[in-house]
Design brief:
Layout: H1 11-28, H2 34-48, H3 51-63, H4 68-73, H5 85-98, H6 100-103, H7 109-118, H8 121-143
Helix pairs in contact: 2-3, 2-5, 2-8, 5-7, 5-8
GO molecular function, one term: peroxiredoxin activity
Pfam family, one: CMD
InterPro entries: AhpD-like (IPR029032), AhpD_core (IPR004675), CMD-like (IPR003779)
């Protein structure tokens, strides 16, 4: 598969991507635990089917110390017992925030309240932006058919 648009060589795309990656870096520096950030990025990317983001965030999570067991179980987090209650709340919010069209009402009050039990306002803000950011990046990559070549090295991206 060849990408429809080269983010590096296209000046307009390159300029926009530079700003997007800056936003991604800002999210990484938030107080939301890094493990939660990567789990959320993985789950959103699984739902949307973004191969390049799955390659990136699986490797970033592993490089940050995430276990292969937890990485393999993200897609079935409801049935897995390896995630904390806080991580489960974040994953549920990520799913409802990603499946907006499926849920029709977006993120439910129950899911929001559960996340708010585990995360302070700054962390909730980062979580909301992380879900939104990943959905946007997933869509950009899917629309332009960015391939997952397997060549991504941890730390290369945002």
């Amino acid at each position: 598969m060849e990408a429809r648009l080269d983010y590096v060589t296209n000046p307009a795309a390159g300029k926009a991507i530079k700003h997007l990656m800056s936003a991604g870096k800002t999210l990484q520096e938030s107080t939301l635990p890094r493990a939660t950030q990567e789990l959320v990025a993985l789950r959103v990317s699984q739902i949307n089917g973004c191969a390049v983001c799955l390659d990136m965030h699986t490797k970033n999570a592993a490089a940050a110390g995430e276990t292969s067991v937890r990485l393999h179980l993200v897609s079935v987090w409801r049935e897995a017992t390896v995630f904390t209650e806080a991580e489960r709340a974040a994953l549920e919010l990520a799913e409802e925030g990603t499946r907006v069209a499926d849920a029709a009402t977006g993120v439910s009050d129950t899911v929001w309240a559960n996340a708010a039990k585990h995360y302070d306002e700054d962390q909730l803000t980062a979580l909301v932006f992380m879900v939104s950011f990943m959905n946007m990046v997933n869509r950009l990559n899917i629309i332009t058919q960015q391939p997952a070549t397997g060549a991504y090295e941890p730390g290369q991206g945002h």
